[in-house]
Amino acid sequence: RAAVAASGLNTMLEGNGQYTLLAPTNEAFEKIPSETLNRILGDPEALRDLLNNHILKSAMCAEAIVAGLSVETLEGTTLEVGCSGDMLTINGKAIISNKDILATNGVIHYIDELLIPDSAKTLFELAAESDVSTAIDLFRRAGLGNHLSGSERLTLLAPLNSVFRDGTPPIDAHTRNLLRNHIIKDQLASKYLYHGQTLETLGGKKLRVFVYRNVSCGS
């Protein structure tokens, strides 16, 4: 409730719409590392994205849910809601602890895990969960982890783990500068890249974007 009030979403949830609220229990918040939770609670944009990821665009009682159902959140993400016996599941996990709490403008289901969207994660958190974890460890060892876990708006060009199949380079001045040239001084989704665009890295290198048939390349 405190998180909803801090985000300003209470006005919407008190309005006339019909929503489904996947309400995290206090225990769900306690499962998140305090550093991560404090960062999200202190970042209005990340907090709003987090809470929007727990609100469905229509009221949905348990009896209306069938296996394999895909639903969209206000954040724009898609959740796979289904059934396992008499248990409701989200993305294949039985995390709904209490269901069908009816309100005048929707329904609430309590869940015991937070559904953190990518948009509420830092570069470090997002990349550490993927197949670029080796590169992320290199950034951390090179002393660049603060750029990936802070509030800077950056773009990370993260090498895949397969790039390091023969091992990782030693951490020296050359490696640090090489890694800094994989961090762009702006937050850019691929849809915002255009042909001929120049990007500057933290290492001072200028990269030029080439777009061929909607495929972006850099040099």
Automatic annotation (TrEMBL):
GO terms for biological process: cell adhesion; extracellular matrix organization. One of its GO terms (cellular component) is extracellular space. It comes from the Eukaryota. InterPro entries: Adhesion/Biosynth-related, FAS1_dom_sf, FAS1_domain. Pfam families: Fasciclin. One of its GO terms (molecular function) is cell adhesion molecule binding. SMART domains: FAS1 (SM00554). Residues 1-115, 119-219 form the FAS1 domain. This is TGFBI isoform 11. It comes from Pongo abelii.
